[in-house]
Amino acid sequence: MEKRKINVGLIGIGTIGVGVARILLKDRARIRQKKQVDIVLKGIADISPKALKRIPGGKKLYTRDAQKLLNDPDIDIIIELIGGINPAKQFIRQALTGGKDVVTANKKLLAYAGKSLFALAEKKGTDLKFEASVCGGIPLIRSIQDGLVANEFDSLYGIVNGTTNYILTRMEETCEEFAVALKTAQDKGFAEANYKLDTRGEDAAQKAAILARVAFKSAFPISSIYREGIEHITPQDIRYARDFGYRIKLLAIIKKLGTGLQVRVHPALIPLQSSLASVRNEFNAVLLNGDQTGRLVFFGKGAGCYPTASAVVGDVIDLARKRQYGIPSAAAENNIRQNRFPLVPATEAKLSYYFRFGVADRPGVLAAIARILAANHISIAAVIQKGHAGRDGVVPIVMLTHEAHEKTVRRAVTRIDAMDMVKKKTHIIRVVHLP
Amino acid sequence: MEKRKINVGLIGIGTIGVGVARILLKDRARIRQKKQVDIVLKGIADISPKALKRIPGGKKLYTRDAQKLLNDPDIDIIIELIGGINPAKQFIRQALTGGKDVVTANKKLLAYAGKSLFALAEKKGTDLKFEASVCGGIPLIRSIQDGLVANEFDSLYGIVNGTTNYILTRMEETCEEFAVALKTAQDKGFAEANYKLDTRGEDAAQKAAILARVAFKSAFPISSIYREGIEHITPQDIRYARDFGYRIKLLAIIKKLGTGLQVRVHPALIPLQSSLASVRNEFNAVLLNGDQTGRLVFFGKGAGCYPTASAVVGDVIDLARKRQYGIPSAAAENNIRQNRFPLVPATEAKLSYYFRFGVADRPGVLAAIARILAANHISIAAVIQKGHAGRDGVVPIVMLTHEAHEKTVRRAVTRIDAMDMVKKKTHIIRVVHLP
Asked: Are residues B171 and B286 in the same domain?
């Protein structure tokens, strides 16, 4: 088969776009030699030319108008790196409709509009690849879809948000409050000014939605995915967790339950010796439990210019090879016509729980709490009651339970919080025992 | 493009072969639906039909004669799972020459004869895939070659032998001697009767050779790869290492040094908090340091029927899709015509070292040892001298050094071992600080 050039158009030159452009321009010969495909970056579009100075040789490829690339019949592949819903969605639709393949790192768009985009790609015989959208530097999507294709997965546990993992690590190491650790994360470039998407679990929920599609062939509206952030976690919780032998991590969990699937994002106490507990700072890791391979863990940088750019370029090379050899679209694989599993509400989970009660400093409080828990068939696994009352006269009682139904737990805690001697709303954190 | 059946012949039905046959027979429809390719297991060859009873539907596919499959013009892909050099090599050569693609898990053959086999595959336009040959359950080869293709690697550190990792874990947990832990490993099926390939580092060296080819584009004769096993490690070493904050693991290390490459296999003290230190029992893990992605770790089962079978099936699916869509061979990628890097002798390494001296129980010994080390410009980082003489009158002195040249270290230890008051040959274990 005659070799031809594969032309690529890049839309969006933020940090990742700059990395992608640099790799494609610098490594063209290396890629050709390694993968027998000649990839040419033909155009770069962005509303601002500012980042061009960081792309040697980029200036002559620049256009302010993305339409120039989208309408160029010589361009085979569009890389969308502007993020957000609009106009990214319109650009991608336009590219797919025009017979171009698309590579994106846009997790939000995929989580919100994946359904229509994959359907469009399948209909048009084009491809939409997105390795960089989840755990940037880790070749996770392709491992699930190709290397592990002989597996059915039972569960997936992921630390998929580097910002929150950095904040939690920092809180543990320095005993800083959330707000202080957040500030440090922002100073170091690990958290954005608009940090709430990260700290409230929204970003992780978007990634969970994508992973449920890829690994469990089930597409759920992002709004239906339970999420809880880390803003209410205190250094005290982290210290008590440690006393019990656990570390607190923000987890994305996808897990079969009966005939359905749970998909949820929340902070969790995980055993200190578990493989995800040692994932520190801005790193990501995903634990997959396959029926053939058993437990697998992928660990690496989830974000950052070059890790993510590396994933984008991997996808571009795949698509270029497909173009060159006339391989048909694989979009059908991600166009979920019917969910493999129905979504099980998060309240159906049966877990252990960590409670931190803030109570009045007088006798009988623990007994009263224990009585309510017992009445709800929640048994106590461990208790710490070592603090003294602070200036507010409130003493912490910290507790781990055995497994109980979330519904029952919520009911019991509502009753406990209604008691006179309970001075603060009870902190509840789930305990997750990884496979 | 019209879809056709892709016919597969399986040679060798040991544990992995059985797993592969079961997956291909049971999951044909699932694979067709997931990956749009129809893979038919057309024949199974083995000198013994014994394992057929574990393959439902396998009997009617059986032949005693591998030539039946190798000469069948309808067979597209041969899976070689007999292991060892002969007749596996001849079978694979025959298949490749006859225009068939090959999937193998045969690390020994690839390490010894990879050069001629990949050259043959490239010449014939066929493919030779081998994901299962290194860290069975972990999709490592494909991640390096596809997902991480935009990366240059600086170093690779792997726990790639499950048997020795199981033994070392067991020795740490129970303080058993090597021979006792080995017996347990054999009883549990984690070590073979002929265990020496594992415990002497031969198996890990074969995997290192394959990884040097894949990740560093350099093919070295297996005999040139430095290897040292774990048979001389004692529970005392493991305990002392722990006192210093380290754990002992058998590592395969590939690392750029100057313009060359070190490839070596040996036990090493690695910091307790490093990501590879928590890899326990029969699990494998590989740490890769890429210029774009930074540090990546892949963790999973390195052996076992289904993890390895899963990797074989992943390769078969790739090849079937390539056949279906007429994609040319990728064998050139692994046919190293010229090494990217020359091999640097292991003695060129500059590392820290762990010494365990067995000395006479009298004053002045430590001073004498320290004097020799100082004369060789080896500085001491930490010393433990807490034991008392056993019945043999020998006291251990345990020491960690700062970085020193291996050559110098060997020279100094030879001088120390020649001293009267040194009663036993000094144990030397390298200390490795992972990125």
From this structure: yes
Note whether A358 and A378 are same-domain residues: yes
Contact by Cβ (8 Å): A272, A139: no
Show contacts of B20-24: CB within 8 Å, 24+ apart.
B20/B79, B20/B81, B20/B309, B20/B312, B20/B313, B20/B316, B21/B55, B21/B58, B22/B54, B22/B55, B22/B56, B22/B309, B23/A150, B23/A292, B23/B306, B23/B309, B23/B310, B23/B313, B24/B313, B24/B316
**Residue B321 in contact with partner chain A when CB distance is under 8 A:** yes
Closest to A301 in 3D by CA, of B300, B145, B292: B292
Whether pLDDT at B136 is above 60: yes
Query: For residue A230, what is the domain's CATH number?
Result: 3.30.360.10
**Nearest C-alpha neighbor of A307 from the set A149, A140, A184:** A140
| A368 in the same domain as A294 | no
Distance CA B144, CA A35 (A): 12
Amino acid (1-letter code) at residue B4: R
**B232-247 mean pLDDT:** 96
B23, B147, B330 ranked by CB distance to A150: nearest: B23
* pLDDT tens-digit readout, B137-192: 899 999 999 999 889 999 999 999 999 999 999 999 999 999 999 999 999 988 88
Q: CATH no. for residue B326?
A: 3.40.50.720
Q: How many angstroms separate the CA of residue A375 from the nearest CA in chain B?
A: 41
Find the residue in A nearest to B334 (Cα).
A34
d(CA B243, nearest CA chain A) in Å: 19
Q: Phi and psi at residue B271, in whole multiples of 5°?
A: -55, 140
Give phi and psi for B427, each to the nearest 5.
-80, 130
- Rounded Cα gap, residues B404 and A84, in angstroms: 53
Q: Report the pLDDT value the prediction gives residue A1, as an integer from 0 to 100.
A: 46
The domain in which residue A425 lies consists of 349-431
> Which of A107, A124, A129, A207 is labelled catalytic?
A207
| pLDDT higher than threshold 50 for residue A301 | yes
Q: Which residues of B touch A1 (CB under 8 A)?
A: 326, 328
Q: What's the whole-number mean pLDDT along residues A343-352?
A: 90
B278, B291, B333 member nearest A278 (Cβ): B278
Contact B146 A306 (CB under 8 A): no
The model carries a pTM of 0.92
DSSP string computed for B309-359? HHHHHHHHHHHHHHHHHTPPP-GGGG--SS-SSPBPPGGG-EEEEEEEEEE
Residues B63, B176, single domain; the answer is no
Partners of A321 on chain B (C-beta within 8 Å) are 327
Residue indicated by tokens 């040692």: A278
- With an 8 Å Cβ cutoff, are A299 and B275 in contact? yes
Same domain, yes or no, for B266 and B207? yes
Mean pLDDT for A158-166 is 97
Angstroms from A68 CA to nearest CA on chain B: 27
A340 part of contact set with chain B, CB < 8 Å: no
For A278, B238, B276, the CA distances from B273, given in Å and listed in that order, are 8, 15, 8
Here the tokens at position A85 are 């819903």
Q: Is A329 on the interface with B (CB under 8 A)?
A: no
Mean pLDDT of A291-307: 91
Note whether B161 and B288 are same-domain residues: yes
Å between B326 CA and nearest CA of chain A: 7
Rg (CA), chain B: 24
Instruction: Please name the residue ranges forming H helices in A191-274.
Output: 196-199, 202-216, 235-243
CA B324 to chain CA centroid, nearest Å: 33
| Single-letter amino acid, residue A304 | G
pLDDT of residue B1: 46
Contacts of residue A265, Cβ cutoff 8 Å, sequence gap at least 6: A201, A204, A205, A208, A225, A226, A227, A228, A250, A251, A252, A253
